Amino acid sequence: MSSRAPVIWWIRRDLRLCDNPALTAAAESGAPVLPVYILDEQDEALGAAPKFRLGLGLEHFGQELAKAGSRLILRRGKALEVLQDLIEETGAGAVHWSRLYDPQAIARDSAIKQQLKEQGVEVISHGGRLLFEPWTVETKAGGMYKVYTPFWKAVRGRNVDSLLAAPGKLAAPDSWPASDGLADWHMGAAMRRGADVVARYCRVGEAAAQARLEDFLEDSVDAYKARRDYPAEDATSGLSENLAWGEISPHRMWHQGSAAMERGSQGAEHFLKEIVWREFAYHLMYNSPHILTESWREEWQDFPWSKKITPQVQAWQRGQTGYGFVDAAMRELYVTGKMHNRARMIVASFLTKHLMTHWKIGMDWFADTLVDWDPASNALGWQWVAGSGPDAAPFFRVFNPSGQLEKFDPEGAYTGRWIAEGQDTPPQTALDFFDAAPLSWDLSAGMAPAEPVVSLQAGRDRALTAYREAREER
Ligand SMILES: Cc1cc2nc3c(=O)[nH]c(=O)nc-3n(C[C@H](O)[C@H](O)[C@H](O)COP(=O)(O)OP(=O)(O)OC[C@H]3O[C@@H](n4cnc5c(N)ncnc54)[C@H](O)[C@@H]3O)c2cc1C
């Protein structure tokens, strides 16, 4: 116990004790540390699955803080007002936090910083979420990168901050301010019956994330480059969920991945390249935030994508398109809150091309259903597939979901795992979908397999005709 004024550690997407510059700085100040999570309007607006997953992360992290002799204080409301209240209640003299990079968070944080500084409170923001702060990576001409490969070449040889140890016991304040109860926040309310199912597939917390990284680097990274596109295999790290909530730092992934590369591990460089795709997504979001809301390339603004939730779009959301790869992927998403990267590309292509539906409809669905939802990677992923984004796949490259299935799921292991219809004894994974899906969808494992919602040839022809016409009009 100490009678010194505490410092506030405002926790955001950094639910970890190791390698956390904001926490390290707060602890090294020598003052008692007050860990606080604020459920403000930006968190209230999260989609169902990310909000639920945040709740799981907070519950776990509260326990970890308790083991370190500390506590997680939960408050709900406008972030500035909550911080001001806490400063008044505790006499805190400083606030530390890890930076976020989406435009809403930047606007909120800048205003809070200015206001608190005017009140005489020290405010220090820290890195930790990204390997490279977006403004530190520039082309020779001084602009942003718009293409991935030169971005990768610009950063791959850079120094990456070394890992910080967890601070050990955290000094506690003389008395703890009141905290909300997490259960009263009802973080899983919008998940309804899906919550229990999705929870079984989540990997929550720092220790679990670190253990997974070690297993992946030990067992799978050698084959990563060759096998990462096969959705039935456990060939990728699966760490996006933990990165999204800051349960692991990209620095740890980078350093341990680099060490594997130095040991001669095949595939490790490719793994580092994928981590840098995430950095590239943040670089783009920071420098061109309209990537979140509009077609990044201006000439795509008027592309005649439909914005209606038609019965075909509903079939896409519900894994009922009649195409195995698409349906397996959309069910994997609904059951686990995650989806394999190749499957994300295929379902995004199917929606934006075969169903000629705006990428925003898909992006919003992912924002509601992914536990690894990340604004930058989601927007880049959708616009990359749709053709409207930076360094995007050309629109005329239309994935054929049946051809992709033959190539990447030749034995039917992925479809068998997620689609129950037509199987005598479906696995639990496939049955879980019917426990997670809303009752209003009226689906059951015994129903007939879905009929194709569009002919692949007709859908492709329609998309390519629209593309040709749009180009002619430009
Ligand atoms: C339409 C679409 C939407 C997407 N939405 C998201 C999202 O909301 N959140 C999210 O984290 N990723 C998103 N991605 C990127 C990618 O699909 C996931 O990061 C990946 O599937 C996560 O699995 P993993 O952790 O096993 O990846 P690994 O293959 O193990 O890769 C390691 C890490 O690299 C990063 N990474 C890998 N591929 C990409 C990529 N294409 N773009 C950006 N970063 C990447 C991730 O942080 C990942 O955890 C999206 C991709 C597409 C095509």
Automatic annotation (TrEMBL):
Pfam families, A to Z: DNA_photolyase (PF00875), FAD_binding_7 (PF03441)
Q: Which InterPro entries match?
A: Crypto/Photolyase_FAD-like_sf (IPR036134), Crypto/Photolyase_N_sf (IPR036155), Cryptochr/Photolyase_FAD-bd (IPR005101), Cryptochrome/DNA_photolyase_1 (IPR002081), DNA_photolyase_1_CS_C (IPR018394), DNA_photolyase_N (IPR006050), Rossmann-like_a/b/a_fold (IPR014729)
> What keywords appear on the UniProt entry?
Chromophore, FAD, Flavoprotein
Keyword Translocase listed: no
Cofactors (names): FAD; (6R)-5,10-methylene-5,6,7,8-tetrahydrofolate
Q: Which residues form the Photolyase/cryptochrome alpha/beta domain?
A: 5-131
Family assignment? Belongs to the DNA photolyase family.
What is the name listed in the Swiss-Prot or TrEMBL entry for this protein? DNA photolyase family protein
Q: Which organism was this protein described from?
A: Leisingera aquaemixtae
* Taxonomy of the source species: Bacteria, Pseudomonadati, Pseudomonadota, Alphaproteobacteria, Rhodobacterales
